[in-house]
TrEMBL record:
Signal peptide: none annotated. Keywords: Dioxygenase, Oxidoreductase. This is Protocatechuate 3,4-dioxygenase. It comes from Sneathiella litorea. GO terms for molecular function: ferrous iron binding; oxidoreductase activity, acting on single donors with incorporation of molecular oxygen, incorporation of two atoms of oxygen.
Length: 282
């Protein structure tokens, strides 16, 4: 049977992709950020997950404002990256696992999540930056097959934080019932607090992010008391991306251990966070 062995929450700022490309990990600006990923790199190298379910948001590369699915899941054999204008060199295609994707989609639709199914899907920095952060070495990255789960946190109305947590629970259930022996990791990406535009551009909220990280393991429902409009006020309109971490958290169930965490302000305009959970139930 497939096993969900752990989960990671991680930010996805495009500048991180440039820093990795230019080997700036030891640069004083970047060091406190990349240091936080060392436990994740070691964990990934030790555990060698076969599949990554990558929960992320597209920023206008594959989906635009004319047609915006709330939840879209890729079911392709590979996912191409393309130039989206942040000065990032497009990365090599990422391998998919269409059989597992279709199983996941079937199971979620059965559980009343109406999923947009994508047999082709371009992936942007929301996807590529977390992949590069989890597996900076391309040969390791190539060993992981990816199932992209794309969430609308771009055009209102967004799904609620509660809906995200429940989607995560349904994903966890689907993985646990998949018959192939695969080790699966789930990545909840985006956030933490940031605002890219308007008079308050550059806004972050350390106190709120810290409380979010503190509550994520044992009390993820804490975030549900805020509407997405309230969250935009508190953590910035782009900071609302953090609701995608609840999908990761919901999938893992309650028998988990926090192995590492890091929080660093600023990376570009963003309060960058990373957290690693291991599932003790499998
Ligand atoms: C930045 C953050 C994002 O989440 C994003 O999608 C693009 C840019 C930033 O801080 O530069
Ligand atoms: Fe973003």
């Amino acid at each position: 049977m497939a096993k969900l062995i752990g989960g990671v929450g991680s930010s996805h700022v495009p500048a991180i992709g440039n820093a990795l490309e230019q080997g700036l990990q030891s640069d004083p600006y970047w060091k406190p950020f990349f240091e936080g990923y060392k436990p994740v790199w070691k964990w990934m190298e030790d555990k060698k997950p076969d599949v990554a379910i990558l929960v992320y948001n597209d920023h206008g590369l594959n989906f635009f404002l004319d047609a915006m699915p709330t939840f879209a899941i890729g079911a392709a054999t590979e996912y191409q990256n393309a130039d989206e204008g942040w000065g990032l060199k497009p990365l090599d295609p990422f391998k998919g696992n269409p059989e597992f994707s279709w199983y996941l989609i079937d199971s979620l639709v059965e559980d009343e999540f109406d999923i947009t199914m994508c047999q082709e899907m371009l992936v942007d920095h929301g996807f590529t930056v977390p992949m590069s952060l989890m597996w900076p070495k391309q040969e390791l990255r190539n060993q992981v097959k990816v199932i992209p789960v794309c969430v609308n946190v771009v055009q209102y109305p967004f799904p609620s934080a509660r809906r995200c947590l429940k989607l995560g629970e349904a994903i966890g259930k689907a993985v646990a019932s998949y018959e192939e022996d695969l080790n699966v990791v789930i990545l909840g990406t985006g956030g933490l607090s940031h605002q890219l535009d308007g008079e308050r551009a550059g806004h972050t909220n350390r106190a709120f992010d810290t409380e979010f990280l503190d509550k994520l393991k044992d009390e993820p429902e804490w975030l549900l008391k805020y509407s997405n409009y309230e969250l935009a006020e508190i953590v910035g309109p782009q900071g609302v991306e953090m609701i995608m971490w609840l999908i990761m958290r919901g999938a893992l169930g309650d028998n988990i251990r926090e192995l590492s965490r890091n929080y660093h302000i600023p990376i570009s305009n963003t309060a960058a966070g990373v957290i690693l959970f291991e599932n003790e139930a499998v």
